[in-house]
Every structure is written in structure tokens, then in C-alpha cells.
Amino acid sequence: MTSTDASLPRPRASWWREAAIFATTFTLCLSGGIAHVDGTFGPPPAAAYVVAVLMCAVLPLRHRAPLAALVITTVGGMLVAPVGLLLTPLAVAPVAVTAYVLAVRDERRAAAAIPLSAALLVSTTPFVETLSWQDLTRLGTVVAVPLVAGVLGWSVQNRRAYMAAMEERARRAEESRESEARRRVAGERVRIARELHDLVAHQITLANAQAMVAAQVFDVRPEQTRKSLEDVIETTRNALDDLRATVGLLRQSGDAVAPTEPAPGLSRLPALLESFRRAGLEVSVHEEGTARPLPPGVDLTVYRIIQEALTNVTKHAGGGSARVGLAWNRDRLTVTVADDGTNAHPDPATGHNGATLLDRPPGHGLIGMRERATAVGGHLSARRRPEGGFLVSTQLPLPPAKAGEAP
């Protein structure tokens, strides 16, 4: 309880506890008055009542002003012997209560005040009593009473501090777990959004290009129109299948498992390039070095970057030709996708070609490619080519070649 809390109304249970402490302490203090200095025993005299009331009257203030309460009870204990009463451990019970509270509330002040209080309690006794060895033992017990109470108070204070530290540590750990959970959820959302973008943007762009081809030759080449429309049907069917497979990954663990197929990689590159060729984009592949198996994450990254780069060529250049380059080195794979920029659609607002991504507001495609490359420890750059067109270049790290594999 802080000093601010002490001014607030206390609940009924707190008042009952305070009343019980007051009554018990007053009874113990008054019981010390049955022993007189002359060695006789009898009912507590009026002086015992006065001292007990003086020492116990300040007990309700011990939470608000513990040091002042200890001073007043100590002064009351110093009056026990001068008024003709025998100084016993029972007579200084209020001192023990205030010493305990002070040790709990203010460890620094208690370390100095409690030993001083214990010494002052017996300071007046030698002036009114002739002390024997038995008396010295009794006074030693009196001195020990506030000291033991202080030790108990320090123990409680240390335990409370320990429990508070444990609660704070638990709270911080819970906040850390919640923060980590939010971070993982955000990362998973970005990953899912990237996958959906790559799938939908690629397939829809191809379908749009194939539909444009069908519209252009509708009147003069009916057979080619039919072929283009069949390509549109196949492309949209593939888009639905890919989208269904991706959404299936979001099912709960108790749901039925949707059939899935292996993640795409370079093994599916020929089929990917053929889909772009059917959409009117001439794509060639140039490979240097000796190819070797890629880790699943890198394999998927290479496929998605080529897919997104060619999708952007089809979307923004509208046709022409593109070249895919794969350069295999000992410790890295360099992937390039370049278009010639010769068949770009004019931008109605400016009248010039819009073949490059840099001429347009940045979208999710270029961001997604950079995120994919960074996720596997690589680097992606995108820039205009001096001779025209646009170049996407990616460098991805490769694991060391295994024994028997060509570097």
C-alpha cells in the first residue's frame, strides 16, 4: 500500500483486520504490566493502561507514517521502567508491530531506525533497576523483539519484490510472445499476399493478352481466334486451380486436406515460357555454366521471379520479345529477364512508350520480387536498359556443390 492508497477508504475486511491487530497488541502490552519492578505480580496498574494506550494509539498510523509510529512506540517503551513496571517482551509488542511495517515499507530507514529503537528501549532501565544476570537476559530478549520483527519485515519486503519481479518478467514474456505472434501473422499475411499476387497477376495477364489477340484477328482469322479463346479457357482454368490450391493451404488442421502438387521450380520453366509464347510474347532462354539442383526455397524463388518479370513484360510492353538468362557459378545463380521494349503500348497521357516499370507507379510485383530474393539471402535490381527495354537481375546464393557435382 502506497501513501496515496492509505488515504483511500479501506474495505470492511481491512477494518476488521486492523481492529484485531490493535486488540491483540493492546492485550499483549497490557499483560506486560502484571510484572512489577519489585518482582511482584498483580493486576496491571493505571500506569500500565496509560502506557499501553499511548503505544497502541499510533498503530492505525503505521502504514501512513511508519517511522513516526516507531518513534512514538519506542518512547512509550522507554517509559515502562520509570513508571514502575517491569520491561518485558510483551510490554514492547507495539514496537515490534511498527518495526515490522517500517521494514516492509522503507528498508533504508529501517536499517538505521530499528537497531536504534531496540537500544533506546532498555536505555532507561539501568537508572531504575538493580540489574542481575537474569535481568540482562530479559533485557536482551526485549532488544531482540524489534530486531526479529525487522528481519521478518525485510523478508516479506524481499519476497514481495521478488514476486513483483517475477510478475513483471511474466508480463514482459507474455507481451513478447504476443509481439512475436503478431510478427509471424504479419509475415504470413505478406507471404500469402505475395503468392496470390504472383498467381493471379500472371494468369490474368496471360488471359488478357490472349483475349486481345483473339479480338484483333476475330474478323480475318477465325481459326486463330478459336485457338486464342481456347488458350484463354485453359489459362483461366489453370488460374482457378492454382488459386484453389493456394487457398487450400489456409485450411484449419481439422479440415479435409485439399490435394496439392509440388511447388513450382525450374523444372516447370518450359511450360511457363510456353504459356507466354501463346500470349504473343517471344521468349528465349540463355543458360551459362552447369545447372545443379536447387534448394526448394531458391527453386521456387527463381520460378516466381521469372514468372513475375515476364508478366510485367506482357502487361506493360504488350508483346515483343524477352530473354531469360541463367548464369550458374560456384556460389551463386544469376537470373536475368530483359525485354527489347520495341512493342510497348503508348501511354495515352504522355504519348510515349510505357514499357518499363519505372515509368509507372510502383506496384506489388516489383516489391514481391525483391522480398522473395531477400528472403533467401539474394539481391534483386531493376533498371532500364541503355538500348531500350527493361532488365530485372537477381543474384541468389547457392549451397556448396556436393561431391560428384560440377561446380
> Which spans of ≥5 residues are poorly predicted at pLDDT below 50?
1-8, 255-259, 344-362
Number of strands: 5
- Class by SSE composition: alpha+beta
Molecular shape: rod-shaped
Strand content: 5-15%
- What is the share of helical residues? 55-70%
Average pLDDT, rounded to a whole number, is 77
With strands numbered from the N-terminus, the spatial order across the biggest sheet is 1-2-3-5-4
Question: Using only CA atoms, what is the Rg?
Answer: 44 Å
Order of helices and strands: HHHHHHHHHHEHEEHEE
**Distance between the ends:** 72 Å
Structural domain count: 2
Number of helices: 12
Query: Which sheet architecture does the biggest sheet show?
Result: 5 strands, mixed
Please describe what this structure looks like.
The chain is α+β, with helices and mostly antiparallel strands and about 400 residues long. It has two domains: about 5-170, no CATH class; about 265-405, Heat Shock Protein 90, CATH 3.30.565.10. Helices cover about 60% and strands about 10% of the residues. It contains twelve helices and five strands. The protein has helices at about 5, 10-30, 45-55, 65-80, 95-105, 105-120, 125-130, 135-215, 220-250, 270-280, 295-315, 365-375; strands spanning about 280-290, 320-330, 330-340, 380-385, 390-395. It has a five-stranded mixed beta sheet, with helices on one face. A hairpin with a 3-residue loop joins strand 2 (about 320-330) and strand 3. Helix 8 (about 135-215) packs across helix 11. The radius of gyration is 44 Å and the shape is rod-shaped. The model is unreliable at about 1-10, about 255-260 and about 345-360 (pLDDT under 50).
